[in-house]
Amino acid sequence: MSSEEQNPNVEADASTDAHDAVEPTEEVDASEERVEDVNPAELVMQIEELQNQIGKLKDQELRTQAEMHNVRRRAEQDVEKAHKFGLEKFVGDMLTVIDNLERALASMDAEDEGLKAAREGIELTLKSMQDGLKRHNVEAIDPAGEPFDPEYHQAMTMVPNPDVEPNTVMDVFQKGYTLHGRLVRPAMVVVAKAP
After folding, report:
1. d(CA 74, CA 68)
2. Where is this region: Disordered (predicted)?
3. How far is the CA of 84 from the CAs of 129, 151, 166, in angstroms?
4. How far apart are CA 153 and CA 159, in angstroms?
5. If we measure between CA atoms, which residue out of 171, 148, 119, 67 comes closest to residue 127?
6. How confident is the model at residue 112 (pLDDT cuts 50, 70, 90)?
7. What per-residue confidence (pLDDT) applies to 194?
8. Which residues pair with residue 141 across a beta bridge?
9. What is the pLDDT of residues 17-41, one digit of tens each?
């Protein structure tokens, strides 16, 4: 038995292969006809339109990157501010304690031997409170003798005084405080004015 007799599909496969080889040639011919039908002016317009779209997309990408950079920077600043000023309310509460300790010292007679131990204890407590606040960048504002600054001082009254320059702080009712340079509480002051 010959190989052709053994496999009758061989001729069918060969004819199919020959037919497949012809089809791509026909497709190429059809595409050549389509390219010849296209107007060069239309191609130029399409290229320009695509270039415009590419330009717009590049611009949009740059804007998106810039916006993401700004968002990241704002978030970092917010975190930094939260770290710096997270203690602001706590500091405000501690200032009341410092004020009370200073008032207690001012009301005690320095000459009274019976109060000497209590006075020393209050002084040490006040000093440790002030040192603790300084470690956290809390600074006192005690502007006696300085020019009045409305950013950091609150004028309680103005008193005529010919011996002092006008707008000078004559007396401090209550010290002011800042946290990392930000005002927590203004200093309450008496300001001199021209007579």
Report:
1. 10
2. 1-39
3. 19, 20, 36
4. 16
5. 119
6. confident
7. 82
8. 176
9. 544 544 554 555 555 555 567 788 8
Residue 111: predicted pLDDT: 85
Contact (Cβ atoms closer than 8 angstroms) between residue 172 and residue 144? yes
pLDDT tens digits, residue range 61-101? 999 999 999 999 999 988 888 877 788 888 988 999 999 99
Whole-model pTM: value is: 0.59
Specify whether the CB–CB gap between 168 and 147 falls below 8 A.
yes
Side-chain half-sphere of 80: how many Cα atoms within 13 Å?
7
3-state SS string for the chain: CCHHHHCCHHHHHHHHHHHHHHHHHHHHHHHHHHHHHCCHHHHHHHHHHHHHHHHHHHHHHHHHHHHHHHHHHHHHHHHHHHHHHCCHHHHHHHHHHHHHHHHHHHHCCCCCHHHHHHHHHHHHHHHHHHHHHHHCCEEEECCCCCECCCCCEEEEEEEECCCCCCCEEEEEEECEEEECCEEEECEEEEEEECC
